[in-house]
Protein backbone atom coordinates (compact mmCIF):
# COMPACT_ATOMS: atom_id res chain seq x y z
CA UNK A 1 0.00 0.00 0.00
CA UNK A 2 2.93 2.35 0.50
CA UNK A 3 3.43 3.14 -3.23
CA UNK A 4 -0.32 3.80 -3.59
CA UNK A 5 -0.36 6.17 -0.61
CA UNK A 6 2.71 7.95 -1.95
CA UNK A 7 0.99 8.32 -5.33
CA UNK A 8 -2.12 9.75 -3.67
CA UNK A 9 -0.01 12.22 -1.69
CA UNK A 10 1.77 13.35 -4.87
CA UNK A 11 -1.52 13.54 -6.76
CA UNK A 12 -3.16 15.88 -4.25
CA UNK A 13 -0.09 18.13 -4.14
CA UNK A 14 -0.95 19.54 -7.58
CA UNK A 15 -2.88 22.80 -8.02
CA UNK A 16 -3.31 22.47 -11.78
CA UNK A 17 -6.05 20.40 -13.44
CA UNK A 18 -3.87 18.91 -16.18
CA UNK A 19 -1.02 17.99 -13.82
CA UNK A 20 -3.56 16.45 -11.46
CA UNK A 21 -5.00 14.48 -14.37
CA UNK A 22 -1.58 13.18 -15.39
CA UNK A 23 -0.86 12.24 -11.78
CA UNK A 24 -4.06 10.22 -11.32
CA UNK A 25 -3.46 8.38 -14.60
CA UNK A 26 0.06 7.52 -13.41
CA UNK A 27 -1.40 6.21 -10.15
CA UNK A 28 -4.00 4.08 -11.94
CA UNK A 29 -1.42 2.75 -14.37
CA UNK A 30 0.23 0.88 -11.48
CA UNK A 31 -2.94 -0.96 -10.50
CA UNK A 32 -2.55 -3.84 -12.94
CA UNK A 33 -0.35 -5.43 -15.54
CA UNK A 34 -1.15 -4.52 -19.16
CA UNK A 35 -3.42 -1.73 -17.90
CA UNK A 36 -4.15 1.19 -20.24
CA UNK A 37 -5.56 4.50 -19.06
CA UNK A 38 -6.94 7.59 -20.76
CA UNK A 39 -8.50 10.87 -19.64
CA UNK A 40 -11.29 11.83 -22.04
CA UNK A 41 -12.41 15.45 -22.30
CA UNK A 42 -16.12 15.98 -23.00
CA UNK A 43 -17.18 19.03 -25.03
CA UNK A 44 -19.61 20.21 -27.69
CA UNK A 45 -18.77 20.84 -31.31
CA UNK A 46 -19.79 24.50 -31.56
CA UNK A 47 -22.93 26.07 -30.17
CA UNK A 48 -25.66 23.43 -30.08
CA UNK A 49 -23.45 20.81 -31.74
CA UNK A 50 -23.28 17.13 -30.79
CA UNK A 51 -21.60 15.95 -27.60
CA UNK A 52 -17.97 15.10 -28.37
CA UNK A 53 -15.01 13.55 -26.60
CA UNK A 54 -11.30 13.37 -27.21
CA UNK A 55 -8.34 11.79 -25.38
CA UNK A 56 -6.60 14.61 -23.52
CA UNK A 57 -4.01 12.41 -21.74
CA UNK A 58 -3.20 8.71 -22.09
CA UNK A 59 -0.68 6.00 -21.29
CA UNK A 60 1.97 5.20 -23.87
CA UNK A 61 5.01 3.04 -23.27
CA UNK A 62 4.55 3.15 -19.51
CA UNK A 63 4.39 6.97 -19.48
CA UNK A 64 1.54 9.49 -19.55
CA UNK A 65 1.43 11.86 -22.50
CA UNK A 66 -0.98 14.73 -23.21
CA UNK A 67 -2.43 16.13 -26.42
CA UNK A 68 -1.05 19.38 -27.81
CA UNK A 69 -4.34 20.16 -29.58
CA UNK A 70 -7.28 22.25 -28.46
CA UNK A 71 -10.40 20.12 -28.09
CA UNK A 72 -12.18 21.45 -31.19
CA UNK A 73 -9.06 20.96 -33.37
CA UNK A 74 -8.06 17.51 -32.10
CA UNK A 75 -8.01 14.94 -34.95
CA UNK A 76 -8.73 12.20 -32.40
CA UNK A 77 -12.04 13.77 -31.35
CA UNK A 78 -15.20 11.74 -31.97
CA UNK A 79 -18.89 11.95 -31.14
CA UNK A 80 -19.85 10.63 -27.72
CA UNK A 81 -22.54 8.52 -29.41
CA UNK A 82 -19.77 6.31 -30.84
CA UNK A 83 -19.26 4.97 -27.30
CA UNK A 84 -22.89 4.02 -26.54
CA UNK A 85 -22.20 2.55 -23.10
CA UNK A 86 -20.56 5.77 -21.94
CA UNK A 87 -23.18 7.95 -23.64
CA UNK A 88 -25.98 6.06 -21.86
CA UNK A 89 -24.14 6.34 -18.53
CA UNK A 90 -23.75 10.13 -18.83
CA UNK A 91 -27.35 10.62 -20.00
CA UNK A 92 -28.54 8.75 -16.90
CA UNK A 93 -26.19 10.62 -14.55
CA UNK A 94 -24.61 7.30 -13.56
CA UNK A 95 -21.23 6.85 -11.90
CA UNK A 96 -19.63 4.23 -14.17
CA UNK A 97 -20.00 2.23 -17.36
CA UNK A 98 -18.34 -0.93 -18.64
CA UNK A 99 -17.75 -2.83 -21.84
CA UNK A 100 -16.53 -6.42 -22.04
CA UNK A 101 -15.33 -8.36 -25.06
CA UNK A 102 -12.96 -11.25 -25.72
CA UNK A 103 -10.13 -8.78 -26.44
CA UNK A 104 -10.73 -5.97 -23.96
CA UNK A 105 -12.47 -5.00 -20.73
CA UNK A 106 -13.16 -1.28 -20.29
CA UNK A 107 -14.22 0.74 -17.25
CA UNK A 108 -15.39 4.35 -17.67
CA UNK A 109 -15.64 6.72 -14.70
CA UNK A 110 -17.20 10.12 -15.57
CA UNK A 111 -15.92 13.14 -13.65
CA UNK A 112 -18.99 15.02 -12.41
CA UNK A 113 -18.66 18.69 -11.46
CA UNK A 114 -21.79 20.74 -10.65
CA UNK A 115 -24.07 18.06 -12.13
CA UNK A 116 -22.21 17.97 -15.45
CA UNK A 117 -19.74 15.44 -16.75
CA UNK A 118 -16.72 17.43 -17.93
CA UNK A 119 -14.33 14.52 -18.39
CA UNK A 120 -14.06 10.77 -17.99
CA UNK A 121 -11.33 8.39 -16.91
CA UNK A 122 -11.07 5.25 -19.01
CA UNK A 123 -9.27 2.16 -17.68
CA UNK A 124 -8.89 -0.94 -19.87
CA UNK A 125 -7.06 -4.27 -19.86
CA UNK A 126 -7.21 -7.61 -21.72
CA UNK A 127 -8.72 -9.53 -18.77
CA UNK A 128 -11.74 -8.93 -16.49
CA UNK A 129 -11.25 -6.59 -13.54
CA UNK A 130 -10.88 -8.36 -10.21
CA UNK A 131 -13.11 -7.03 -7.45
CA UNK A 132 -10.21 -5.74 -5.33
CA UNK A 133 -8.60 -4.14 -8.37
CA UNK A 134 -11.82 -2.33 -9.31
CA UNK A 135 -12.35 -1.22 -5.70
CA UNK A 136 -8.86 0.34 -5.60
CA UNK A 137 -9.37 2.03 -8.99
CA UNK A 138 -12.73 3.43 -7.85
CA UNK A 139 -11.27 4.67 -4.55
CA UNK A 140 -8.40 6.46 -6.32
CA UNK A 141 -10.91 7.97 -8.73
CA UNK A 142 -13.10 9.26 -5.89
CA UNK A 143 -10.11 11.00 -4.27
CA UNK A 144 -9.30 12.52 -7.66
CA UNK A 145 -12.88 13.68 -8.32
CA UNK A 146 -13.25 15.21 -4.85
CA UNK A 147 -9.98 17.08 -5.28
CA UNK A 148 -11.03 18.23 -8.75
CA UNK A 149 -14.20 19.63 -7.17
CA UNK A 150 -12.15 21.57 -4.62
CA UNK A 151 -9.91 22.98 -7.34
CA UNK A 152 -12.90 23.88 -9.49
CA UNK A 153 -14.60 25.64 -6.58
CA UNK A 154 -11.50 27.72 -5.88
CA UNK A 155 -11.32 28.77 -9.54
CA UNK A 156 -14.90 30.01 -9.87
CA UNK A 157 -16.88 33.10 -9.00
CA UNK A 158 -19.35 32.25 -6.24
CA UNK A 159 -22.27 34.21 -7.71
CA UNK A 160 -22.18 33.34 -11.42
CA UNK A 161 -20.19 30.10 -11.46
CA UNK A 162 -17.89 31.55 -14.13
CA UNK A 163 -14.12 31.31 -13.80
CA UNK A 164 -12.69 34.06 -11.59
CA UNK A 165 -9.97 36.69 -12.01
CA UNK A 166 -7.30 34.61 -10.28
CA UNK A 167 -7.94 31.75 -12.71
CA UNK A 168 -7.75 34.14 -15.67
CA UNK A 169 -4.35 35.44 -14.54
CA UNK A 170 -2.99 31.88 -14.23
CA UNK A 171 -4.51 30.48 -17.43
CA UNK A 172 -3.76 33.46 -19.65
CA UNK A 173 -0.16 33.73 -18.47
CA UNK A 174 0.31 30.00 -19.10
CA UNK A 175 -1.40 30.19 -22.50
CA UNK A 176 0.71 33.19 -23.55
CA UNK A 177 3.94 31.48 -22.50
CA UNK A 178 2.94 28.29 -24.32
CA UNK A 179 2.10 30.16 -27.52
CA UNK A 180 5.45 31.96 -27.48
CA UNK A 181 7.35 28.72 -26.90
CA UNK A 182 5.43 26.86 -29.61
CA UNK A 183 5.58 29.57 -32.27
CA UNK A 184 7.94 28.82 -35.13
CA UNK A 185 10.00 31.67 -36.63
CA UNK A 186 7.90 33.58 -39.15
CA UNK A 187 4.70 31.68 -38.24
CA UNK A 188 1.38 33.47 -38.02
CA UNK A 189 0.14 33.98 -34.45
CA UNK A 190 -2.69 31.84 -33.18
CA UNK A 191 -6.05 33.51 -33.79
CA UNK A 192 -7.14 34.01 -30.20
CA UNK A 193 -8.94 37.13 -29.03
CA UNK A 194 -9.47 38.73 -25.64
CA UNK A 195 -12.68 40.66 -25.03
CA UNK A 196 -13.76 42.72 -22.02
CA UNK A 197 -17.54 42.91 -21.55
CA UNK A 198 -19.04 45.54 -19.24
CA UNK A 199 -22.73 46.06 -18.35
CA UNK A 200 -23.79 49.63 -19.15
CA UNK A 201 -25.20 51.75 -16.29
CA UNK A 202 -25.07 48.83 -13.88
CA UNK A 203 -24.79 51.14 -10.86
CA UNK A 204 -28.20 52.55 -11.79
CA UNK A 205 -29.64 49.02 -11.72
CA UNK A 206 -28.37 48.51 -8.17
CA UNK A 207 -29.44 51.98 -7.04
CA UNK A 208 -32.94 51.74 -8.52
CA UNK A 209 -33.86 48.08 -8.03
CA UNK A 210 -31.50 46.93 -5.28
CA UNK A 211 -28.60 44.50 -5.16
CA UNK A 212 -30.84 41.43 -5.30
CA UNK A 213 -32.00 42.34 -8.80
CA UNK A 214 -28.49 43.47 -9.64
CA UNK A 215 -27.19 40.02 -8.76
CA UNK A 216 -29.91 38.43 -10.88
CA UNK A 217 -28.82 40.56 -13.85
CA UNK A 218 -25.23 39.37 -13.36
CA UNK A 219 -26.35 35.72 -13.26
CA UNK A 220 -28.51 36.09 -16.39
CA UNK A 221 -25.72 37.87 -18.28
CA UNK A 222 -23.36 35.06 -17.27
CA UNK A 223 -25.87 32.54 -18.63
CA UNK A 224 -26.02 34.47 -21.91
CA UNK A 225 -22.25 34.40 -22.13
CA UNK A 226 -22.25 30.61 -21.67
CA UNK A 227 -24.91 30.09 -24.33
CA UNK A 228 -23.26 32.35 -26.91
CA UNK A 229 -19.78 30.84 -26.85
CA UNK A 230 -18.29 27.41 -27.44
CA UNK A 231 -16.66 24.93 -25.10
CA UNK A 232 -13.15 25.92 -26.24
CA UNK A 233 -13.78 29.58 -25.35
CA UNK A 234 -13.12 30.66 -21.76
CA UNK A 235 -15.38 33.04 -19.84
CA UNK A 236 -14.40 34.85 -16.64
CA UNK A 237 -16.03 37.25 -14.22
CA UNK A 238 -13.54 39.89 -13.19
CA UNK A 239 -15.72 41.33 -10.46
CA UNK A 240 -18.52 43.87 -10.38
CA UNK A 241 -20.19 44.08 -13.79
CA UNK A 242 -17.09 43.19 -15.85
CA UNK A 243 -16.51 39.91 -17.69
CA UNK A 244 -13.67 38.69 -19.89
CA UNK A 245 -13.83 36.21 -22.77
CA UNK A 246 -10.86 34.36 -24.28
CA UNK A 247 -12.29 33.66 -27.71
CA UNK A 248 -10.83 31.25 -30.24
CA UNK A 249 -11.77 32.22 -33.81
CA UNK A 250 -10.02 31.75 -37.13
CA UNK A 251 -10.54 35.32 -38.36
CA UNK A 252 -11.03 38.80 -36.98
CA UNK A 253 -14.45 38.99 -38.62
CA UNK A 254 -15.62 35.79 -36.93
CA UNK A 255 -14.53 37.15 -33.55
CA UNK A 256 -16.29 40.44 -34.22
CA UNK A 257 -19.49 38.65 -35.29
CA UNK A 258 -19.47 36.40 -32.20
CA UNK A 259 -19.10 39.38 -29.88
CA UNK A 260 -21.77 41.38 -31.69
CA UNK A 261 -24.15 38.39 -31.41
CA UNK A 262 -23.58 38.50 -27.66
CA UNK A 263 -24.22 42.26 -27.56
CA UNK A 264 -27.45 41.88 -29.54
CA UNK A 265 -28.63 38.89 -27.49
CA UNK A 266 -28.27 40.82 -24.23
CA UNK A 267 -29.85 43.99 -25.67
CA UNK A 268 -32.84 41.96 -26.87
CA UNK A 269 -33.39 40.12 -23.57
CA UNK A 270 -36.09 41.19 -21.11
CA UNK A 271 -34.58 41.12 -17.63
CA UNK A 272 -37.12 40.58 -14.82
CA UNK A 273 -38.20 43.89 -13.23
CA UNK A 274 -35.22 45.69 -14.78
CA UNK A 275 -36.26 45.47 -18.44
CA UNK A 276 -33.60 45.98 -21.12
CA UNK A 277 -29.91 46.44 -20.44
CA UNK A 278 -26.96 46.76 -22.79
CA UNK A 279 -23.26 45.90 -22.71
CA UNK A 280 -20.18 47.53 -24.17
CA UNK A 281 -17.37 45.33 -25.46
CA UNK A 282 -13.74 46.03 -26.25
CA UNK A 283 -11.47 43.38 -27.71
CA UNK A 284 -7.92 42.85 -28.94
CA UNK A 285 -5.76 40.09 -30.40
CA UNK A 286 -4.58 37.81 -27.59
CA UNK A 287 -0.95 37.81 -28.77
CA UNK A 288 1.81 40.27 -29.48
CA UNK A 289 2.56 41.33 -25.93
CA UNK A 290 2.58 40.46 -22.27
CA UNK A 291 -0.79 39.51 -20.71
CA UNK A 292 -1.08 42.88 -18.94
CA UNK A 293 -0.52 44.70 -22.25
CA UNK A 294 -3.13 42.64 -24.10
CA UNK A 295 -5.69 43.17 -21.34
CA UNK A 296 -4.85 46.87 -21.37
CA UNK A 297 -5.57 47.07 -25.12
CA UNK A 298 -8.98 45.44 -24.71
CA UNK A 299 -9.70 47.79 -21.80
CA UNK A 300 -8.86 50.83 -23.92
CA UNK A 301 -11.24 49.62 -26.63
CA UNK A 302 -13.93 49.12 -23.96
CA UNK A 303 -13.46 52.63 -22.56
CA UNK A 304 -13.79 54.03 -26.08
CA UNK A 305 -17.06 52.13 -26.53
CA UNK A 306 -18.31 53.48 -23.19
CA UNK A 307 -17.39 57.06 -24.05
CA UNK A 308 -18.92 56.96 -27.52
CA UNK A 309 -22.46 55.76 -27.00
CA UNK A 310 -22.19 52.34 -25.28
CA UNK A 311 -24.00 49.21 -26.59
CA UNK A 312 -21.27 48.53 -29.17
CA UNK A 313 -18.23 46.40 -29.95
CA UNK A 314 -14.86 48.13 -30.51
CA UNK A 315 -11.64 46.52 -31.77
CA UNK A 316 -8.37 47.96 -30.46
CA UNK A 317 -6.43 47.83 -33.74
CA UNK A 318 -9.24 49.61 -35.64
CA UNK A 319 -9.25 52.41 -33.09
CA UNK A 320 -5.46 52.64 -33.14
CA UNK A 321 -5.36 52.78 -36.95
CA UNK A 322 -7.95 55.57 -37.00
CA UNK A 323 -6.00 57.60 -34.45
CA UNK A 324 -8.81 57.42 -31.89
CA UNK A 325 -6.48 55.90 -29.28
CA UNK A 326 -3.23 57.70 -30.09
CA UNK A 327 -3.06 59.83 -26.95
CA UNK A 328 -4.64 57.12 -24.74
CA UNK A 329 -2.08 54.51 -25.81
CA UNK A 330 0.80 56.70 -24.69
CA UNK A 331 -0.79 57.30 -21.28
CA UNK A 332 -1.59 53.61 -20.93
CA UNK A 333 1.96 52.54 -21.62
CA UNK A 334 3.16 54.84 -18.83
CA UNK A 335 0.45 53.61 -16.44
CA UNK A 336 1.40 49.95 -17.00
CA UNK A 337 4.72 50.57 -15.29
Automatic annotation (TrEMBL):
Domain GGDEF span(s) in chain numbering: 190-318
Listed GO CC annotations: plasma membrane
Highest taxon, organism lineage: Bacteria
Record-level GO BP terms: cell adhesion involved in single-species biofilm formation; negative regulation of bacterial-type flagellum-dependent cell motility
SMART domains in the cross-refs: GGDEF (SM00267)
Pfam families referenced in this protein's UniProt entry, alphabetically: GGDEF (PF00990)
Catalytic activity: 2 GTP = 3',3'-c-di-GMP + 2 diphosphate
EC number: 2.7.7.65
UniProt-listed PROSITE patterns: GGDEF (PS50887)
Single GO molecular function: diguanylate cyclase activity
NCBIfam families from the UniProt entry: GGDEF (TIGR00254)
Annotated protein name in UniProt: diguanylate cyclase
Species name: Melaminivora suipulveris
Amino acid sequence: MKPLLQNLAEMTAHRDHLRLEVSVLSTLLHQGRDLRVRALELFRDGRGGPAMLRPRSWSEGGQIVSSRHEAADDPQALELAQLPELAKCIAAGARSATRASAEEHVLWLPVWLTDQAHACLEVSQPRPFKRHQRDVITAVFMVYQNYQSLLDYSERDALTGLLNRKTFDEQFARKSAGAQNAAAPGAQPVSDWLAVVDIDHFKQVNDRFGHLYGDEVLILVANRLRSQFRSQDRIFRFGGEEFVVLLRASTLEQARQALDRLRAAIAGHEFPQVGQITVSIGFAAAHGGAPVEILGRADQALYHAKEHGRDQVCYYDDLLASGALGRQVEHSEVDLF
